[in-house]
Specification:
Layout (H helix, E strand, L loop, with lengths): L9 H4 L16 E10 L3 E11 L4 E5 L6 H9 L6 E6 L2 E5 L4 E2 L8 E3 L11 H11 L4 H14 L15 H14 L4 E5 L7 H18 L2 E6 L2 H7 L2 E6 L2 E6 L1 H6 L4 H6 L4 E10 L5 E5 L4 E4 L13 E6 L5 E4 L11 E11 L3 E8 L4 E7 L9 E5 L6 E4 L2
Parallel strand pairs: 3-9, 3-10, 7-8, 8-9
Antiparallel strand pairs: 1-2, 1-4, 4-5, 5-6, 10-11, 12-13, 12-15, 13-14, 15-21, 16-20, 17-18, 17-20, 18-19
Helix pairs in contact: 3-4, 3-5, 4-5
Bound molecules: adenosine-5'-triphosphate.
Protein name: ABC transporter ATP-binding protein
Main location: membrane
InterPro entries: AAA+_ATPase, ABC_SmlMolc_Importer, ABC_transporter-like_ATP-bd, ABC_transporter-like_CS, Mo/tungstate-bd_C_term_dom, P-loop_NTPase, Transp-assoc_OB_typ2
Length: about 400
C-alpha cells in the first residue's frame, strides 16, 4: 500500500508492546475485536464492536447521536482505553485490557481530523503540517521534503507561510488532513470533519477527500451521522446503533438490501404501504393485500419471519423505484402492483421533483419525478410498484 511518507510503518510503532501474532483479518491495517467501552463502569457506549479497516478503503461509522461512533474512533487512536476487547494496528496489539497492553496515541502515529480542525493559529500552514514530524524528532531536511510533498498533494503549497488563522474553512480542513497524513501510518481517522462547513463546501470537500484518498491509497476510518455523506464517500459503511454494529457492507448493498428496519430507515427514503399477507409462494415471494384494497406481489426481501397468512405487514420501496404515470381516462381498473392516487404537492429540487401523492386510503406517500415531468399538482396518477423492488417487513 502506498503510504504518504517515507516514515515509520505502523507495524514498527508498537514494537515490543505485545504478542506478535496477527488478528483474524490478515491484511487489515486496523482491527477491533470485541471492543467494549463503558465510562465510569456504568454507561456502556460501545458493546462488542468487531471491524477491520482494509488498506486503501474508506470505512464509515454511521449512526445517530450517542450510538458510540466517536468512542469507537477514540479507542482506535488511543485517546480512550477499551474496557474490554482488542485493538490491533498493522499487526501489533495496541490495546487489550485483559493482557494489560496499551500503546498511547503518540506511539500509534495515526492521523486524526476533528470537526474543529484543531489548526494551531500561532503556527503557519507549514509548521502545522510539520508538527507531527518534529514531535518524532525527524531530521529537518526530511521534514521539509515530506511537508513540501504533503502541501503539494493537498494543494496548499502556495499557503505554506500563511498563519493558520488566515485560511478559509475548506483550506483549514485541508491543513488538518495534511497534518493527519504527516502522522505517517497510512491510516487517517476523521470525526465529522465537514460538519462546520456550509453545504456547498461540504459537498466539495467530500469529493476532494475521496480524490485525495484515492490518489494516496491511504485507509480512512470516517465518522458521520449524515447518511448522504456516508453513501457518497464510503467503500463500506458500518451502521451503528446503541453501541453495536448493526450491518456492515458497501453502500449499495446496505441501501438495496437493508438487514433491519433501522438500517432501512437510516439510509435513504422509503415509501411505506401497510397491508396484510394473503399468500406465501412455495419458494419465495408474498402476495399482500394493501390497505388500498389492491393486491401486490412482493419478490424483494421478506423480513416477516414466516408470519402466517392474514398477518399485518409493511411494504417498503425506494421512491426512485416507483413509476408514476398519469391515470388512464375511463373507469378505474384494478391491477396487481398498481395503486391509484392524486398528486397533492410537487417540490422542485433542481435535478428532480419530490411529489406527495395521496392514495385512496388517505395515506400520503412521497415519490420522485424527473425534472422534465409533465405531471402536475392535482393530477390523478397511478403508482406502479415493481415486485422485485418491494420488501416486506413486520408492522412497525
Ligand atoms: N467521557 C464520557 N463520559 C461518560 N459518557 C460518555 C463519555 N463520552 C461519551 N459518553 C457516552 O457514551 C455514549 C456514546 O457516545 P459517543 O460520543 O461515542 O457517540 P456518537 O455516536 O459519537 O455521538 P455524537 O454523534 O453525538 O458525537 C453516549 O451515551 C455518551 O453520552
Amino acid at each position: 500500500m502506498p503510504t504518504a511518507l517515507s516514515d515509520t510503518p505502523a507495524r514498527d510503532i508498537a514494537a515490543g508492546t505485545g504478542p506478535r501474532e496477527r488478528p483474524a483479518a490478515a491484511d487489515a491495517l486496523l482491527s477491533l475485536r470485541g471492543v467494549r467501552k463503558s465510562y465510569g463502569g456504568v454507561a456502556v457506549a460501545v458493546e462488542g464492536v468487531d471491524l477491520d479497516l482494509a488498506p486503501g478503503e474508506i470505512l464509515t461509522l454511521l449512526g445517530p447521536s450517542g450510538c458510540g461512533k466517536t468512542s469507537t474512533l477514540r479507542i482506535a487512536i488511543g485517546l480512550e482505553r477499551a474496557s474490554d476487547g482488542e485493538v490491533w494496528l498493522g499487526g501489533q496489539l495496541v490495546d487489550a485490557p485483559a493482557r494489560r497492553v496499551f500503546v498511547p496515541p503518540e506511539r500509534r502515529n495515526m492521523g486524526m481530523v476533528f470537526q474543529s480542525y484543531a489548526i494551531w493559529p500561532h503556527m503557519s500552514v507549514f509548521e502545522n503540517v510539520a508538527y507531527p514530524l518534529q514531535a518524532r524528532r525527524r531530521p529537518a531536511a526530511e521534514i521539509k521534503a515530506d511537508v513540501d510533498r504533503l502541501l503539494d498533494m493537498t494543494g496548499l503549497s502556495s499557503f505554506a507561510d500563511r498563519p493558520g488563522t488566515r485560511l478559509s474553512g475548506g483550506q483549514q480542513q485541508r491543513v488538518a488532513i495534511a497534518r493527519g497524513l504527516a502522522a505517517g501510518s497510512g491510516v487517517l481517522l476523521m470525526d465529522e470533519p465537514f460538519s462546520n462547513l456550509d453545504s456547498h463546501l461540504r459537498n466539495h470537500m467530500r469529493a476532494e477527500v475521496k480524490l485525495l484518498q484515492r490518489k494516496l491509497g491511504i485507509a480512512v476510518l470516517f465518522v458521520t451521522h449524515d447518511q448522504s455523506e456516508a453513501l457518497a464517500l464510503s467503500d463500506r459503511i458500518a451502521v451503528m446503533r446503541a453501541g453495536r454494529i448493526e450491518q456492515i457492507g458497501p453502500p449499495t448493498e446496505l441501501y438495496n438490501n437493508p438487514a433491519s428496519a433501522n438500517v432501512r430507515d437510516f439510509l435513504g427514503e422509503n415509501m411505506r404501504l401497510s397491508g396484510r399477507i394473503r399468500a406465501r409462494g412455495r419458494d419465495a415471494g408474498l402476495t399482500v393485500e394493501l390497505s388500498e384494497g389492491n393486491i401486490c406481489l412482493v419478490d424483494g426481501q421478506d423480513h416477516t419471519g414466516g408470519a402466517p397468512v392474514g398477518s399485518p405487514c409493511l411494504l417498503s420501496i425506494r421512491p426512485e423505484h416507483v413509476r408514476v404515470e398519469p391515470a388512464p381516462a375511463g373507469p378505474h381498473t384494478v391491477e396487481p402492483n398498481v395503486v391509484a392516487g392524486r398528486i397533492l404537492a410537487m417540490l422542485f429540487l433542481g435535478s428532480a421533483f419530490e411529489a406527495s401523492v395521496r392514495l385512496a386510503s388517505g395515506a400520503v406517500v412521497t415519490t420522485m419525478l424527473g425534472s422534465d415531468t409533465e405531471l402536475k399538482e392535482g393530477q390523478a396518477v397511478r403508482l406502479v410498484l415493481p415486485k422485485l423492488r418491494l420488501h416486506a417487513w413486520p408492522e412497525d
